[in-house]
């Protein structure tokens, strides 16, 4: 009769930072009370990206955090390829489970075919993460909820609403939550309910690359309006909506947005717009040249840390948000 070997089950949590928005990953690790797992990432002379884990991650629960946005490290495409490379390296290093944490998910706006002969690149990105070895995906305020179905494994779709709504509640004003277009109306409804505020939306028409705001539906006269959206890129939609709100009698216009993409000419537009303050989160880094007085940045590190802890402990993620992330 042979002796048996029993090994007690051990779960090891590894938080790994990509080079894009590393500061956010450091904040997440600090909230979790863990040290970052070291990953040596380099870019070769020809632009190829290489990753090697300095320490063993065999059998570990590995969460690789990378925002899919451009910064001084490179383009959004560089960020995605780096993220994929890190996931593949973790899989080949015998990690028990690899979770891709993308606070800002790249190509999320390409979630369907709006014209013939177009790609659905958001699905392509999901496919690449599956092939690379990611067993789970974590993201915040996806541009479209249907993206969750593009990834065959579990997807934890978080929301920045607890952070943004808590900040807006401190204003203690007669607020009207405004959707800049009909597509964000459900999101605006959730904010309005949370803040016990009024609700309105701006009807707009998009003509190729130009946005024309046509009318405001809702009572905004003499009130403070808060425009809500998942992202702000060139700021054309947001500024056009703000101008319509002022024309309709709003006394103040603010904006609260999860992802501050802020591509040119967004900063110049914001400077010259009636928007008094834009509140964004740190899902994407805000470079010094874009840090103007009108912009305030809130951290989503606590939200991501709580979600990662719940996934690691096999607990419910939706309970963290009272189900609002599923609405």
Give a description of the structure.
With 327 residues, the protein is an alpha/beta fold. The chain folds into 2 domains: 13-159 and 302-326, Rossmann fold (3-Layer(aba) Sandwich); 161-299, Rossmann fold (3-Layer(aba) Sandwich). Helices cover 28% and strands 27% of the residues. The protein is built from 8 helices and 14 strands. The chain has helices at residues 22-32, 76-92, 121-132, 161-169, 185-195, 236-247, 266-271, 301-312; strands at residues 13-17, 39-43, 49-53, 61-65, 97-102, 136-140, 155-158, 175-179, 198-207, 210-217, 224-232, 252-260, 275-281, 295-298. The strands form 3 sheets. A 7-stranded mixed beta sheet has the order 10-9-8-11-12-13-14, with helices on both faces. Helix 1 packs across helix 8 (301-312) and helix 2 runs parallel beside helix 3. The longest helix is centred in the first third of the chain and has 17 residues, at 76-92.
Summarize the structure.
It is built from eight helices and 14 strands. It is an alpha/beta fold.
């Amino acid at each position: 009769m042979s002796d048996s070997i029993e090994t007690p089950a051990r779960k090891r949590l590894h938080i790994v930072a990509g080079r894009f928005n590393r500061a956010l990953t450091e904040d997440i690790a600090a909230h979790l009370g863990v040290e970052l797992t070291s990953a040596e990432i380099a870019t070769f002379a020809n632009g190829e990206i290489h990753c090697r884990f300095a320490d063993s991650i065999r059998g570990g629960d590995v969460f690789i955090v990378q925002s899919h946005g451009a910064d001084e490290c490179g383009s959004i495409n560089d960020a995605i390829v780096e993220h994929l490379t890190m996931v593949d390296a973790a899989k080949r290093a015998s990690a028990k489970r690899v979770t891709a944490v993308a606070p800002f998910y790249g190509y999320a706006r390409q979630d369907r075919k709006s014209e013939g002969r177009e790609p659905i690149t958001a699905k392509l990105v999901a496919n690449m993460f599956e092939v690379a070895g990611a067993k789970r995906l974590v993201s915040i305020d996806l541009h479209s909820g249907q993206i969750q179905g593009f990834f065959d494994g579990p997807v934890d779709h978080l929301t920045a609403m607890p952070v943004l709504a808590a900040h807006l509640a401190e204003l203690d004003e007669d607020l009207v939550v405004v959707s800049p277009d009909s597509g964000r109306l459900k999101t605006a409804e959730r904010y309005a309910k949370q803040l016990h505020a009024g609700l309105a939306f701006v009807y707009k028409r998009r003509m190729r690359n130009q946005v024309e705001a046509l009318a405001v539906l809702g009572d905004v006269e003499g009130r403070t309006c808060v425009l809500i959206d998942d992202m702000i890129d060139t700021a054309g939609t947001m500024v056009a909506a703000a101008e319509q709100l002022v024309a309709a009698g709003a006394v103040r216009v603010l904006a609260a947005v999860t992802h501050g993409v802020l591509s040119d000419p967004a900063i110049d537009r914001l400077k010259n717009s009636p928007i008094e303050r834009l509140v964004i989160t740190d899902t994407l880094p805000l470079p010094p040249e874009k840090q103007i007085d009108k912009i305030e940045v809130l951290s989503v590190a606590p939200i991501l840390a709580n979600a990662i802890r719940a996934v690691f402990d096999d607990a419910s993620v939706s309970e963290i948000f009272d189900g609002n992330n599923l609405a």
